[in-house]
């Protein structure tokens, strides 16, 4: 009975947090500037092209040569930060805001160990994770296992955030797909650099929440075995935005007006176009569901070594329902699901040890 009550508390806390953060009118909602017009059309075509590709296609990825600077150094470890030009297709670079053209990484490594005797895991950002700090704290204790940590700053986040964007609330639907596609391309290039330039023995890719979705995609597309660790991640962005807490943080009326303008005389005001078109909020939700279905990880190929894939879900997650996590395991036979007790928000703070153990175990399976 106590565990049931605690589970309910975690679930309710997720919704209280979501209400305070997303249902209040204090901040700008997601997609307040609409769908993204021609950018969305481009992204839909490019993301669809991922699915039929063989793993060896588009490989090797665009090479990166980060420019490094040392942040600090001790007798046992070293933290460097690097900058490199995003490895996206030129069409995507044109679509990205200028602030996102240069990628930034933090690289935490043990000293006195050669790379071929080490592993390295690339950590991808969850929604709202604008800095390196939280992911470095997650990876720091892994130094004793000779596991290095590379943290990638996503487009639209941190120093790559557009000047007009407030916080993590992306302005257009196309921004979400751009963020994902650019993150995948950059992460693939970093894994290639780690293996072929830096000479690391084993590699992994991980992320929490949105970062977990991107990590699953990168692990799926990698042509050689790589430890793949999606933490607290749904099988698709449809889940949080159309079914979960983020649906309360989405500018549905702005999306409706933008859709109406696209189908009416462009000289009409958005309000007039929305009234004349007869487009309903439910139709807008169906359209967003269709667009975000492009992020469905179950449509991606099974990774080269599914035994090195460990999903970690929370038992009482108010953002990501249990069935969404199980969809991932069902799509990738041989993968493992582990459960931590708690909700989405509380698990970020309470279960870092469980995430670290999953990283160590997945790397051991390579």
UniProtKB/TrEMBL annotation:
Short name of one Pfam family: ABHD18
InterPro entries: AB_hydrolase_fold (IPR029058), ABHD18 (IPR019149)
This protein's UniProt keywords: Hydrolase
GO molecular function per UniProt: hydrolase activity
Domain of life: Eukaryota
Protein name: Abhydrolase domain containing 18
Organism in which the protein naturally occurs: Zea mays (Maize)
């Amino acid at each position: 009975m106590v565990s049931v009550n605690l589970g309910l508390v975690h679930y309710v806390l997720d919704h209280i947090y979501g209400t305070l953060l997303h249902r209040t009118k204090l901040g700008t909602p997601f997609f307040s500037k609409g769908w993204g017009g021609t950018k969305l059309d481009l992204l839909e075509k490019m993301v669809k092209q991922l699915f039929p590709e063989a793993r060896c296609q588009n490989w090797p990825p665009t090479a990166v040569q980060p420019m490094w600077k040392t942040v600090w150094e001790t007798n046992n470890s070293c933290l460097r930060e690097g900058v490199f030009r995003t490895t996206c297709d030129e069409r995507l670079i044109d679509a990205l805001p200028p602030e996102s053209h240069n990628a930034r990484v933090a690289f935490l490594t043990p000293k006195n160990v050669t790379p071929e005797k080490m592993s390295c895991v690339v950590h991808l950002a969850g929604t709202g994770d604008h800095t390196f700090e939280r992911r470095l704290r997650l990876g720091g204790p892994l130094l004793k296992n000779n596991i290095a940590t590379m943290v990638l700053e996503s487009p639209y986040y941190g120093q790559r955030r557009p000047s007009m964007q407030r916080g993590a609330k992306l302005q257009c639907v196309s921004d979400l797909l751009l963020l994902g596609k650019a993150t995948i391309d950059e992460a693939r290039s970093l894994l290639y650099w780690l293996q072929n330039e830096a000479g690391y023995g084993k590699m992994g890719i991980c992320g929490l929440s949105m970062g977990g979705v991107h990590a699953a995609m990168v692990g799926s597309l990698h042509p050689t075995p790589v430890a793949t660790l999606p933490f607290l991640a749904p099988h698709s962005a449809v889940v949080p935005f159309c079914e979960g807490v983020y649906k309360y943080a989405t500018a549905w009326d702005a999306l409706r007006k933008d859709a109406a303008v696209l189908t009416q005389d462009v000289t009409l005001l958005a309000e007039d176009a929305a009234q004349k078109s007869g487009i309903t909020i439910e139709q807008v939700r169906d359209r967003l569901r269709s667009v975000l279905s492009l992020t469905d990880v179950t449509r991606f190929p099974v990774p080269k070594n599914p035994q090195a894939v460990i999903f970690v879900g929370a038992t009482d997650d108010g953002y990501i329902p249990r069935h969404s996590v199980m969809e991932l395991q069902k799509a990738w036979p041989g993968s493992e699901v582990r459960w931590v007790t708690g909700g989405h928000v509380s698990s970020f703070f309470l279960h870092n040890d469980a995430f670290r153990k999953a990283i160590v175990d997945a790397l051991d399976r390579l």
